[in-house]
Design brief:
The chain is mostly helical and 135 residues long. The chain folds into 2 domains: 3-83; 96-130. 64% of the residues lie in helices and 0% in strands. The chain contains 5 helices and no strands. Helix 1 crosses helix 2 and helix 2 (35-59) runs antiparallel to helix 3.
Length: 135
Amino acid sequence: MTLADLDGRTRASLYVRQAIASITEDLGGADRLSAAEQALVEQAALAGAMRTDVGVRWLAGESIDPSAFSTICNTERRALETVGLKRQPRDVTPSLHEYLAHKAAAKAADSISATAVPADAERASGHRSDSAGAS
């Protein structure tokens, strides 16, 4: 049985899927991970869900096995250390087309704002651009 075989609607399953997505994104995306790294990400996410479950039970006043909790925490930490705990930078440099489109839009916005006469400037000069101010 694999995670793909699960219904996926339980809180634990949603937590694990979100954790896998977040960790994978932190590591630069699924296309940058080997199969072994993807397996470690899944292991870390599962251990994280278990750690959260046990931790919340303890906070709610339930008795837990501290040794099992420590083992789960260490398993998660080791998996995360193995794949890397640091975010990997992703190239966000725009393409030439995107850059030129952005520059054209900024230039158009500047030319529109330069041709408009602000109302404060009219009041300061004592002139009005409409005929209501003429006597």
